[in-house]
Amino acid sequence: MYHKVDNEKMEIFMEIVRVSIIISVYNVEEYLRDCLDSAVNQTLADIEIICINDGSTDSSLEILNKYQSKDNRVRVTSQENKGVSAARNVGIRLCQGEYIYFLDSDDYLELNALELLYKEARDDNLDILYFDAVTLFESEYLAKKFASFNNFYLRTDKYSTVCSGAELYVSLQRDNMFHSLVQLQFISKQYLDSIGLFFYEGIYHEDNLFTFISVLQAKRVRHINKKLYVRRINEGSIMTQEKNFKHFYGYLTCYIQMLRFLSVTLITCNEPKYIMEYVDKMLFCAITLFHKLKGKKSGWTERLTEFEYYMLTNTKSFFRRKMERVYSYYKKNGFVKTIVKIKKRLIG
Fold first, then answer.
1. Is pTM, for the whole model, over 0.70?
2. CA 319 to CA 94: how far, in whole Å?
3. Domain end position, chosen among 218, 240, 262
């Protein structure tokens, strides 16, 4: 249920914007009201809600305009369909808040989320504050198919000490608790501006790259084990889609761009192997999809640049040869046994 906000009071609130919520919207009429209700009804009132209509063809724009007409904190802008990265980048350029939060249009926030996150982040002068989520399955079929995601976004309170982003990243990665969802990050706009970071446009899996780059450059971060976000698993999400060239290309691009980032950025880290493990994971995912979906026969290599093709197929690379052995084992023994072997360093 929509809660109407007193616009006279909002004139005062909008003088100082504590948090900018950025929402990319594309054909989500079924879920959009839940998302917007969770935004406009936040207990932290002095916020702005920037909604980028990314070329929707359903009633999403009509819904957005209704919310905008009732609450002057809601700002709607439209563009032709360019993808979630391009839409979020529009939001980054428009936002006025001290902190930025990226909310997916088919998910929603707990109503006290931004108030709690803002206080914690301000009190500790954080670049990024990390938190947790619960998973909402749209059907029993999806709950069974993606059962591993039931408690996937829950972490303990062992990461609550303020530290550098690289330190937190290593701790999370060591425990298999690093999640690439940008929706689980509450980010200082000053910090984001200082590193000039935007989302890589035109690819799937853009969060993997954005969260990797943002965490490794941060000076002050921490995590709170509060379940403040509800992630909805539905038939239309990228995670549940049948995999195709776009998924493969997204992983390959993340791999290349991560390597480029590391080649020009000094990262102070006691255990750099955990950084490379995540980079390697992007290539592993790309190679796995390439083989599984018969990318060569499907003409995928013809859609790559010469450099991208080299990065995918360079047989002189030790890691490339290692990944081929990993994939060969995966084909014979399945995903779970493969992961166990990798963790025990028995494939290589």
1. yes
2. 41
3. 240
